[in-house]
Write a structure and sequence with these properties.
By secondary structure, the protein is mainly alpha-helical. It has one domain: Myeloperoxidase, subunit C. It is 35% helix and 3% strand. The protein has 18 helices and 5 strands. Strands 3-1-4 form a 3-stranded mixed beta sheet. The two termini are 24 Å apart. 50% of the residues are buried.
Length: 470
């Protein structure tokens, strides 16, 4: 490494990846101090001083079950029900969620929150893509070219075992076709960056770390310059990036707040449409059961990404459903293949599971968080629960959804949800010395998300030097 790079914190992870035997480990592993335990991290709280919201379980079930306020039934995706953002963004949000959170506990009350473990590192580092690298997870990489990730023969699906289950770093990225195809697109993007690194004359010993760094920094730039502005607004994104982080201030040890993981960042469940047109040949399909994962992707479900994300020179993509507190029927009655068998029928509802998760970890009410932030709480009549006989305050998850509808017509998050999501995601990048937030000023992205998804090898080389550095 050149002498000038030795003290550059942005290249810290790159430098570690070059040192045997950890050069092939994921950034999540390689960046840990040598005496740190390798294992799950803990969750934390943004507002530990606020009392937990509590209500009878039956009330939560009534709110989230089939026929409750959270159920929008099986009506068509009418223009009045759709938001201004492209239909693919909630899936990218899910991809990010899988990168930074993995709580494998059941949706039940947790008396001792210290026992909750996040099985992901609190970094946006594509841990589910790279695993522990070619040495730690060699089954993810090509034997004859270990700088490159594997796919199924022909490259049109993820590598799968004999039962059809994807061989990837995070099984949740195979839960439905949109996620598995997005994961596959990132595999191809990494391999394209490998080709670019070699074409530039980079020594072979540095090809893998260069390609991984490029993809991670592009992915992080998408979060900062495309995803967050569409979700919380450009003004708030820029404000937080300039240092206005008021609530997520964890010091040197980043953590995932429960207010984020179990409430605000579950906003995307309300954005899922009834149907999706994935390509020009197939018929419209539902997310479940039509696109359920854990099996090979059929030709009619191959995704043409400009149908889900806006791209230059293409017609506008389909739009996401509004964030309004209502979920489509496919999510109110989840497949047993995803939830597992249960004696309680209501637990097939994703809305019930979201409500139970917040109750189980003792989250405060949405109104309490709003007051703590100095925001006027959304009136009860606009929350809408009074018409269902609900009295008192509102579970934080449902409050965030209704706040988005009341304040932003369902197009993006409202003040409480935006603050929580924006501060946590930007904060995680600020606190990661290897992230794009600490990249050299000379580094610029060469592709947007839609270009990464379509394929770098299919896109013309575009000069993005005018792009604002993340």
């Amino acid at each position: 490494m050149p002498e000038g790079d030795r003290n550059n914190p942005a290249l810290e992870s790159v430098r570690i990846w070059n040192v045997n035997p950890t050069h092939c480990l994921s950034p999540a592993r390689a960046q840990r101090p040598t005496d740190a335990p390798i294992g799950p991290t803990m969750y934390g709280r943004l507002f530990p001083e606020l009392p937990a919201f509590s209500c009878a379980q039956e009330r939560l079930f009534a709110l989230g079950r089939a026929g409750g306020l959270c159920d929008c039934g099986d009506q068509a995706d009418e223009p009045s029900s759709l938001a201004s953002v492209a239909a693919g963004w909630p899936f990218f949000g899910q991809f990010v969620a899988h990168d930074i959170t993995a709580d494998r506990s059941a949706p039940q009350a947790h008396a001792d929150l210290s026992q909750l473990r996040n099985a992901r590192s609190p970094r946006l580092n594509l841990e589910g893509l790279y695993g522990d690298g070619p040495v730690g997870h060699p089954f993810l990489f090509q034997r004859n070219d270990p700088a490159k990730l594997l796919t199924a023969p022909g490259g049109r699906d993820l590598l799968r075992n004999l039962e059809g289950t994807a061989i990837i770093g995070d099984p949740r990225n195979d839960s439905h076709v949109v996620m598995s195809q997005m994961h596959l697109a990132f595999v191809h993007a990494h391999n394209a960056f490998v080709d670019r690194a070699r074409a530039s004359g980079l020594p072979e010993a540095r090809v893998f770390e260069s390609a991984a760094r490029e993809l991670v920094w592009h992915y992080q730039t998408v979060v900062l310059r495309e995803f967050l502005p569409s979700l919380i607004g450009t003004e708030l994104t820029d404000l937080i990036m300039r240092g206005d982080r008021r609530y997520y201030r964890p010091g040197d040890q980043p953590f995932i707040p429960l207010e984020f993981a179990d409430a605000a960042y579950r906003y995307g469940h309300s954005q899922i449409r009834h149907t999706y047109q994935l390509n020009s040949a197939g018929a419209p399909v539902r997310i479940f059961p039509d696109l359920i994962g854990f099996r090979p992707v059929v030709a009619e479900h191959q995704i043409e990404w400009p149908r889900l994300f806006d791209g230059a020179g293409a017609p506008p993509a389909a739009r996401a459903k509004k964030i309004d507190g209502r979920l489509v029927g496919a999510l109110i009655a989840l497949p047993v293949a995803l939830t597992g068998a249960s004696d309680v029928d209501d637990l097939q509802s994703l809305a019930v599971r979201d409500l139970m998760r917040g109750e189980g970890v003792g989250l405060p009410s949405g109104e309490a968080v709003a007051r703590r932030m100095g925001e006027p709480p959304v009136p009860a009549e606009e929350i809408g629960t009074t018409s269902a006989g609900w009295s008192g305050e509102t579970p934080l998850w449902y409050y965030v959804l209704r706040e988005a509808d009341v304040h932003q017509a369902g197009n993006r998050l409202g003040p409480v949800g935006s603050r929580i999501v924006g501060e946590v995601l930007i904060g995680l990048l600020d606190l990661d010395r290897g992230s794009v937030r600490h990249a050299p000023q000379s580094w610029k992205p060469s592709a947007t998300l839609i270009e990464l998804l379509i394929g770098l090898d299919r896109m013309p080389r575009v000069d993005h030097s005018h792009t604002t550095n993340a």
